[in-house]
Specification:
single chain, about 500 residues, alpha+beta, three-stranded mixed sheet, 17 strands
C-alpha cells in the first residue's frame, strides 16, 4: 500500500506512529489491515534481520479486530489507537517469555505486564511481538544463545547496536510502528544512531521501570531508564507522555507535569556543541555529519558555542559514571565471581587505571565508596543545572562512529573498532553515553543522514532535568531543516 504524503510517495510502513494513528482515525486504513500489513513485512524481511524474536500474533489480531469494532462505534482508546507495536524482550508481557537473553531464563514466562506495556496498551497500540537483546542487555551489539544475532538493516554485516538493537532494527526496516527500549549505557541512543531512527532517554525516574527487569526484581536500578524509539520526533514526545508518570507506590502523593517546550523556532535556541573529546575521539566521517548539523543550526539563527561547557572535569565525570555503572551491573555476580574479583582488585597496582582495572575496583567497592562517589555526582548535577541556566541544550555525538562490523569474539573490553584509521576499544564509547546518564539528564537522538560510507548516523541532544520535551521538540525543528528518518535500501 502506497500513500501520498506532502507530495511525496511514502510507504505506509515508514510513516510515523502519529501518522498511522491518523490514518486509522480517518478510516483510511483499518486496524486489522494495518496489523496484517506489518505482519506481511515481517514475513518478508525479519528472517534476515532477526529483529523480532517473540510473537504475539493471535492476541494482536483479536485486539486489532476489537479496535476496529470500537472505532466503528466512535470509540477511540487513545492517541495510538490501532498502531502496531513491538517492544524490547526485557519488558514483561503477560504470557510471553522474558529472558534478557539468559539461557537459564529460557522457559520463564511473565505473569503480568510491565507498567510501560499497560500504559502503551491504554494509549491504543496493538502489541504483536518482542525484539531481540544481548545477554543481560550488556552490549552495543545484539546477540544471545536463545535468539541468535540481530543485524543492521542498512548492512547485514554490521551491528544494529544494543541493547535495544532489535527495537531499532525493526523500526528502521519498517517492521513495526513504534518501540520502547531501556538505557543505562546508551542502549536506546546507540541503536537509534546506528539504525537511523529516533530515540529518547528520559530523565531518570520519569518513567516507571517496573516490569522491565530480571525475573523477581522490583527496585529501580540506579542510572537505568526506559523510553521510546520511533521514526519521528513527534512520536517520542507522544509516547513519553503516555509512558511517564508516577508508579502506584507514589501516585497518591505526586503527579508528573513535564515542562512543555516554549520555543517555536530554531533561532530562539542557545546550543553548546561538542564535536569530539579527547576522552573519546570521533571518526572523521561521522564528525563531518555532526559538523553539518552545526552549520545548519548556525544558518538558521541558532546561537552556537563550541566552548560552552558545564564546570566539570569530564574525564572525572566519566570515572564517576563507570564506578556507579559497575556498581549496578556487577551486583548480580555470583559469590565465587565476587571473591575472584576481590582478589584481582587487591592485586592491582595504585597506578592501574584502565577500563578493566576500574571495573574490578567498582565491582567490589564498599558502600561508603559508593556514597562518596554519589556525592561527587550530586555536585556535578548542580553544575549541569547552572550550565542550563545559560544554554538550552548540549549537542554532541552518540558514539565514536557509525555501526561497526559484527564482532562476537572474546570479552567486550578486548574488542576494537576503527576510528580515523586507529583501533579504539569499543567500551571507550561509553563516554558519550555516560556524560548525561550519570547525572540523570534526558537525552534525545535524531538521525542526521548518512556518512560517505552510506551508513546512518545521529546526533545526541542533552537537556536539563525534566525538560525532556524541550530536546525532543528541538529534534523536531532540526528535522524540518536536515530531514529525518530515511528507509534503508532494499526494504521497499
Amino acid at each position: 500500500r502506497v500513500l501520498e504524503q506532502g507530495g511525496l510517495v511514502s510507504m505506509l510502513h515508514y510513516l510515523t506512529a502519529i501518522q498511522l494513528a491518523k490514518k486509522v482515525r480517518d478510516r483510511e486504513v483499518g486496524c486489522v489491515e494495518l496489523l496484517e500489513h506489518f505482519l506481511d513485512r515481517c514475513r518478508r524481511y525479519n528472517d534476515s534481520i532477526n529483529a523480532i524474536i517473540v510473537w504475539n500474533t493471535e492476541a494482536a489480531r483479536i485486539r486489532a479486530e476489537a479496535a476496529d469494532v470500537a472505532l466503528a462505534k466512535g470509540e477511540i482508546w487513545g492517541p495510538l489507537h490501532g498502531v502496531p507495536m513491538t517492544i524490547k524482550e526485557s519488558y514483561d508481557v503477560c504470557g510471553l517469555p522474558t529472558t534478557w537473553g539468559v539461557p537459564e531464563y529460557k522457559t520463564h514466562v511473565a505473569q503480568t505486564n510491565a507498567v510501560v506495556v499497560d500504559r502503551m496498551l491504554k494509549a491504543g497500540v496493538v502489541l504483536f511481538g518482542k525484539t531481540n537483546v544481548p545477554l543481560l542487555l550488556g552490549d552495543w551489539q545484539t546477540f544471545n544463545e536463545i535468539y541468535g544475532t540481530t543485524s543492521n538493516p542498512w548492512d547485514l554485516e554490521r551491528v544494529p547496536g544494543g541493547s535495544s538493537g532489535g527495537s531499532a532494527a525493526a523500526l528502521s526496516a519498517g517492521l513495526t510502528g513504534i518501540e520502547s527500549g531501556s538505557d543505562i549505557g546508551g542502549s536506546i541512543r546507540n541503536p537509534a544512531h546506528y539504525c537511523g531512527v529516533y530515540g529518547h532517554k528520559p530523565t531518570w525516574g520519569v518513567v516507571p521501570v517496573r516490569g522491565q527487569a530480571l525475573p523477581g526484581d522490583l527496585a529501580h536500578t540506579d542510572i537505568a531508564v526506559v523510553g521510546p524509539l520511533a521514526r519521528g520526533a513527534g512520536d517520542l514526545a507522544l509516547a513519553l507522555e503516555c509512558m511517564a508518570g508516577s508508579d502506584d507506590l507514589e501516585s497518591d502523593g505526586w503527579k508528573l507535569d513535564l515542562v512543555k517546550p516554549i520555543k517555536r523556532r530554531l533561532s530562539e535556541f542557545r546550543v553548546a556543541v561538542m564535536l569530539s573529546d579527547d576522552n573519546c575521539p570521533v571518526d572523521g566521517e561521522y564528525g563531518d555529519q555532526v559538523q553539518h548539523v552545526v552549520d545548519v543550526m548556525a544558518k538558521n539563527g541558532v546561537i552556537v558555542s563550541d566552548r560552552a561547557r558545564p564546570d566539570i572535569d569530564l574525564a572525572r565525570s566519566h570515572g564517576v559514571y563507570l564506578q556507579l555503572l559497575r556498581a549496578v551491573t556487577t551486583a548480580i555476580q555470583p559469590l565465587d565471581c565476587f571473591e575472584e574479583n576481590r582478589r584481582k582488585s587487591a592485586a592491582l597496582k595504585p597506578g592501574d587505571d584502565d577500563y578493566v582495572a576500574r571495573n574490578l575496583r567498582a565491582s567490589v567497592q564498599y558502600h561508603r565508596d559508593w556514597m562518596s562517589v554519589n556525592e561527587e555526582r550530586a555536585k556535578m548535577r548542580w553544575r549541569w543545572h547552572e550550565f542550563f541556566q545559560d544554554w538550552d541544550l548540549l549537542l554532541c555525538p552518540v558514539a565514536s562512529s557509525a555501526a561497526f562490523v559484527h564482532d562476537q569474539q572474546g570479552d567486550r573490553p578486548d574488542r576494537v573498532i576503527d576510528v580515523n584509521g586507529k583501533p579504539q576499544c569499543t567500551m571507550d564509547q561509553l563516554f558519550w553515553a555516560g556524560m548525561s546518564s550519570v547525572v540523570y539528564l534526558p537525552s534525545t537522538v535524531a538521525p542526521v543522514g548518512c556518512t560517505k560510507s552510506q551508513l546512518p548516523v545521529g546526533v545526541q541532544m542533552v537537556g536539563p532535568s525534566m525538560h525532556d520535551l524541550r530536546i525532543i521538540d528541538f529534534a523536531r525543528l532540526l528535522t524540518n531543516e536536515i530531514g529525518g528518518f530515511q528507509p534503508p535500501p532494499g526494504y521497499a
